[in-house]
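User: Predict the complex with norvaline.
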Amino acid sequence: MTRHLLEVDDLDPVRLRTILGNALTWKHDPGSIPQILAGQGVVALFQKPSARTRISVEMAVATLGGHPIFVRDEEVDLDRRESVEDVASTMATMCSVITARVFDHRVLERMTAVVDVPVVNLLSDTAHPCQALADLLTMREDLGELEGRRIAYVGDGNNVAASLAYASALSGVELAIASPDGYELDPHVVDRVRNLGGSVELVSDPYDAVRGADVVYSDVWTSMGQEDEREQRLRAFAGWTIDADLMKAANDPVIFMHCLPAHRGDEVTADVIDGPQSVVWRQAGNRMHAARALLVDLLSEDGLLLSGERT
Ligand code: CP
Ligand code: NVA
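Assistant: Here is the predicted structure with norvaline placed in the model:
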């Protein structure tokens, strides 16, 4: 059966652990990266802007020996010039993997319904699984074993928060999410994460979230596609900036993470994101290492056979 990654819960704990192990192995020993994409193409289709995601996918594909093909939606004009299904079917005749950043998550589901190559979600309005894989990888580097660790996510209960919740559940990480009224994580996601055995706690005071946290995490208050809500969101999130005082209420040591792009002075102060607790640049670079290991998993019969898990 074709493997896809639309949300982190398409994986299981063993595959997730193997992806992280392979990502670390190949990060430290690039000579051992399997050239499984030699002579093959991977398409990366974008309906929204990107810095990290595009670059990480292109570099992951290139270092696996393949050829990345970047396509903006303006070129294929999904569902106007041609249906999503016809665009995806065309891509699948020439490429081994379809990766896409979309607004509506259902666009990705429509692709998986018609193609027999893996489809990878590079961010939709509801999920950002590739980000969550890189986040776990970064935590693993800093904290070692993930099980029993605690992440405090402070901000909008958005796509990044949802994928982080699934990733936490699959790796035994406790997650506390503090959001203002009306901006909490979708209750369906909370239910699903709890059904997976995950520990996700929703709180309304950031100080309750960060107590005992090994990681403090934030994302923008206004995601791509929500620009019209910016003023309303600025009002709702006033007072929710992660600052040095909030960081002091977490564990010592604690790391600060952010998927980026960041808005200094909104969701986080400059002294925190540019300070010694921040790991955001390594986290950004880990997007490539995580994407590479993910592609190998998706193209493997059994990712475990490739290199096993190493730290
Ligand atoms: N974190 C992330 O996905 O960044 P881009 O939007 O720049 O790809
Ligand atoms: N939540 C943000 C993440 C950007 C990487 C967005 O969807 O715009």
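Residues 131-283 form a domain with the Rossmann fold fold (CATH 3.40.50.1370).
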